User: What shape does this take?
Amino acid sequence: MPVAADDERRDEGRPRRSARPGTGGALLWTALSVPLPGAAHLRMGRRVAGGLILGIYLLGLGALVLWAYRLGAHGSDAMTRLAGMVVQDVWLLGAMGVVFAFAVVWMSVIVHAWVITRPEGGGRGLRLAGVVTVLVLCLAVAAPSGWALHAGYTAYETLGSVFDAPEREDLPPHDAADPWYGAERVNVLLIGADSGDNRYGVRTDTMMVASLDTHTGDTVLIGLPRNLENVRFPEDTELAERYPEPYGFDLLLNDIYQTVAEEPEELALSPNAPDPSADTLKKVVGHNLDMDVEYYAMVDMMGFRDLIDAVGGVEVHITEPIPYGVHGGVLEPGVQRLNGHDALWYGRSRIGTDDYGRMGRQGCLIKYVAEQVEPTTVLTSYRRLAGATKRTLSTDIPQSKVPAFIELADQVTDEGSMSALQLSPPQVNTGNPDWEEIQELIVQAIEEAPGEGEEVPDDPSPSEGSSEEAAEDDEALTEEESQDWTEEERTEWQEYTGLDEPEPADPGRQVGAEASDLNTLCP
Assistant: This one.
């Protein structure tokens, strides 16, 4: 009896264990550990462990809800802010660490819940049922956690391989509160490179400078024809010595990249840059336009097709049939959702038009993509987009600037306006360009409020047959009134072409020295 009394006194300070439930109850309590971890421990009288597990879980859940609420308070900017966080290593690695830790602890709680609730002395059937149940429950936690970890790793690897350029040495350290260092505008050279198997080297057939207002998002796209001649180079460079002014460089603007690529150590302005040829092209363009072009982004034209497919295509408005390809394909008029293949030809086709008409459509394509590709699309298409991006995109934008560019891009589509200035005939003589006049055109285009001038029609969508009717009306007007034009009445297009039509039929073809609202060129 004294021994029994001593045992009772020792048990007074210990928590009392509850009796184990039956097989069904044990399976249910174990399953409850998925939506409510710690519940099985509380059921079995393990109050400290159960309370701690449940408390941590509820605290984490509450923190997640509070973070989502604060993110949602930004309204339409919520997804933009989320995308800005996703492209930062500190957030990515932190989130991946938290997900991994929670998944491991959660699965450990599930396993332990079965251990403490299973009936003692069960047979093989009970053990098998327990193992299967625990595996299924752990899989329910591991699958979404693994998906999140894979998404995080994919984003981390893509960002590291694409945005691996160092910070510019001529600028102060990056400041997230003022990423543009107080500058009114940031200028980026957009390059479309063609390196097909049927041609030598790389040709940069598409070149335009996107000049973005860092406060309003207003954007001017300055289109550079690939056939601009007499390109000038910065003084005291090997390029300037080898190709002295005024007519030293006897090739076209789109030949500069390959010219430097053949002798990067001798001709590149910064031979140690990740891509010396693209870096040199960026600086040469800035020198000729008298602009500080801070960054470049180059996309292989065939890779552009994969990028469009990755985001589910792009919707464009086509006013006239656009023939393309070698097999007689045609992009029909109307509102069309183009896949990557057709979007590529929308921006490349020159059948029935010229380089300058193609430039207009390329500006339209940038406008359509900017308007339609939302941060949510990027987040949900991350796998295909990441693969296509790593294969096709190269840039000298450092990773620290990516969140700022995401916010600026969102501002462009939500609040800013987009206009285009094509440095093409008749406003520019591509064979003998007057660079000082070109610089004045650019200054004027940037200073003027984008979007002013032509008004967008109330209903830009053509009704069935309207294109043919309009063409017939224009033809009839030409036949009846072509002789009545006087020199004072003739349009700039007529003066340039010598044709009777007052304006070009090619949609997107800009004529005039003033920047055109892209909503007018591409409704």
